[in-house]
Amino acid sequence: MAVQPKSIPVRAKGKRPKGSKPKGSKPTGSKPKGLLLSEAEIEEIFRRFQAANPTPKTELHYTDPFTLLVAVVLSAQATDASVNRATPDLFRLADTPARLVELGEAKLTQKIKTIGLYRSKAKNLIALAQKLLAEHGGKVPDNREALEALPGVGRKTANVVLNVAFGQPTIAVDTHLFRVANRTGLAPGKTPLHVEETLNRVVPERYKHNAHHWLILHGRYVCKARRPECWRCIIADICLYEPKTPPPG
User: Fold this and answer.
1) Are the C-beta atoms of residues 117 and 76 closer than 8 Å to each other?
2) CA end-to-end span of the chain, whole Å?
3) Do 134 and 75 lie in a common domain?
4) Which of 174, 190, 237, 244 is catalytic?
5) 206-229: b (≥16 Cβ within 10 Å) or e
């Protein structure tokens, strides 16, 4: 789920966006309990993300709730790019629960063998499709409890499906978002659930539907794990991470 790097504008040296605080100044405004950033700073973070990318999208390729669900299950501990390489051929043969069950576990395994944990994922997807047919008329349910009862579907996967397929303001915490939330000081937490709960509490309602997209994409393309690209980060003057990474060269 990602924004292309070109959609993240580079801030000119020596300038800061209107309304932001000077580097090194103390956070201003009221702070939600237990957080490091003020409400005004959190508001400004998401205002900038929205200005840079008003309609963020998942990078996973899908055509409907079922193909999205399959793609998200496959993306666990794998990259979206690796999933997108495997799913076109898979979805030509099995783009519904019934067709996936008909394809069978052995053939499905062959179709997804380039993706990590492909054997367990194939087993789960066949069982998932069978359960959708038996209990939901072949349709993907639009509630968390039913989604998390499906084989291979955890909270993060359910949140992605609820958000992308059904338009609900859920926040899916992957490794990128978890890193960004902690590194910036936006939503410090020791577990993904803690980070999710904090974000649900502090993200302004008007930004909540797109919040996880912006944060995941920011972590994937700018706030990278090994070397964050602070010199082109649009929230660098708000982020609490220090020392900021200088530009290469």
Assistant:
1) yes
2) 30
3) yes
4) 174
5) ebbbbbbbbbbbbbbbbbeeeebb
Task: Quote the percentage of the chain above a pLDDT of 90.
Answer: 84
| Domain C-terminal end among 164, 196, 224 | 164
Q: Which two structure tokens, joined as six digits, stand for 58?
A: 């998942």
Neighbour-count burial for 83-115, b at 16+ CB within 10 Å, e otherwise = bbebbeebbeebbbbeebbebebeebbebbeeb
Catalytic residue (choose from 80, 111, 121, 156): 156
Known catalytic membership, residue 95? no
Which domain CATH number covers 108?
Answer: 1.10.340.30
Whether the per-residue pLDDT at 6 is higher than 90: the answer is no
Please identify, among 106, 135, 164, the residue that sits at the C-terminal boundary of a domain.
164
Determine the pLDDT at residue 28.
53
What domain count does the chain have?
2
- Decide if 156 is catalytic: yes
* Shared domain check, 33 and 74: no
> Predicted confidence band at 27 (pLDDT cuts at 50, 70, 90)?
very low
* Domain of 159, in residue numbers: 65-164
In a shared domain, residues 156 and 199: no
On whether residue 23 sits in a domain, the answer given is: yes
Classify 145 as helix, strand or coil. helix
**Token duo for residue 54:** 């008003």
Six-digit token string for 16: 């800061």
Half-sphere exposure of 201 (CA within 13 A, CB side): 14
CB-side exposure of 45: number of CA atoms within 13 Å?
30
Q: How far, in Å, CA of 235 to CA of 221, rounded? A: 14
pLDDT higher than 70, residue 93? yes
- Which pTM value belongs to this model? 0.84
